[in-house]
Design a protein that fits this description.
The chain is α+β, with helices and mostly antiparallel strands. Helices cover 32% and strands 22% of the residues. The protein is built from five helices and 13 strands. Strands 1, 4, 6, 7, 8, 10, 12 and 13 form an eight-stranded antiparallel beta sheet that branches. The protein has a three-stranded antiparallel beta sheet with strand order 5-11-9, with no helix packed on it.
Length: 278
């Protein structure tokens, strides 16, 4: 019994002496860390094995299943003057503002076929009077390309539901219906029209929201979202052109003068008759 107890006590004392050595615990820590690190690396290697999954690449050049890019900045574009060289352009005729001054309204009237017609856009030309490239004011879809002898041909581009830009008095049209155009793309050449011959070589440009024309110069350098948020006036009352008003006043004055002269003649005739009778 004593021999067994002596053996146990000697073994216990040996273990204690072993653990009292300085290098024992650091060695144990290093060995444990090595075992844990080995286990982590093995797990990552096994989980990264993707051969068992059937992945389909969609981000490689030339793949047919590559998703189409979605344009997200269209509403952030600003309306631009529809000419390639905006700094050389001039406004030949302004937009007819129903709330504007009488003299401004008169200057925005087009005389065609013995009738005065309000200008529902702006007529743009070059300072030197020469032909120029007409460009898309905003990115959109071409919805109308039409030959029109009076208006000088028409192009219409839709930018959002109910919002379109229209280009008249153009030639050498370079787009077709259904085509997607980017802002600044050349869509035609400026031409002439029978409707406004006095404007010479020009482009007639309109911006319409839900079929109602708005003043293009009020939206140049402003975003599409600005027009979307603006509420249009419902004032569509018929306004007689200032020139016709003046003409009517002259006719009324002439009629009044003729009536006065006729009245004076009748009075003189009556007086003369009375004098003879006396």
């Amino acid at each position: 019994m004593r021999e067994e107890e002596n053996k146990r006590s000697s073994q216990s004392s040996s273990v204690k002496r072993f653990f009292k050595k300085r290098w024992v615990f650091p060695a144990i820590y290093i060995a444990s860390a090595a075992i844990i690190l080995t286990g982590v690396l093995w797990y990552q290697a096994s989980s990264s094995n993707t051969d068992k999954y059937d992945y389909k690449s969609t981000d490689l050049t030339g793949k047919k299943n590559q998703p189409k890019a979605v344009e997200v900045n269209k509403t952030m574009e600003n309306f631009k003057m529809p000419v390639a060289k905006a700094d050389e352009a001039v406004v030949k005729m302004k937009f007819y503002d129903f709330q504007g001054k009488a003299e401004d309204q008169e200057a925005a009237l087009v005389f065609y076929n013995n009738t005065y017609v309000q200008n529902m856009g702006v007529d743009l030309a070059m300072k030197n009077g020469e032909a120029f490239d007409v460009t898309a004011s905003l990115s959109g879809t071409v919805t109308r390309v039409e030959d029109d002898a009076v208006l000088g041909n028409v192009i219409e581009i839709e930018h959002d539901k109910g919002i379109v830009t229209q280009y008249q008095s153009v030639k050498d049209i370079k787009v077709k219906v259904g085509e997607q155009v980017k802002q600044g793309k050349v869509i035609a050449k400026a031409g002439q029209s029978l409707f406004n011959e006095k404007a010479g070589i020009h482009v007639h440009f309109e911006i319409r929201k839900d079929g109602v024309a708005v003043n293009p110069t009020s939206y140049f350098e402003k975003s599409l979202s600005t027009l979307q948020e603006n509420k249009l006036s419902d004032d569509k009352k018929s306004i007689e052109s200032p020139s016709l008003k003046k003409q009517q006043k002259l006719e009324d004055l002439e009629k009044s003068t003729d009536d006065n002269q006729s009245s004076d003649t009748q009075d003189e005739s009556t007086n003369s008759s009375q004098n003879k009778n006396s």
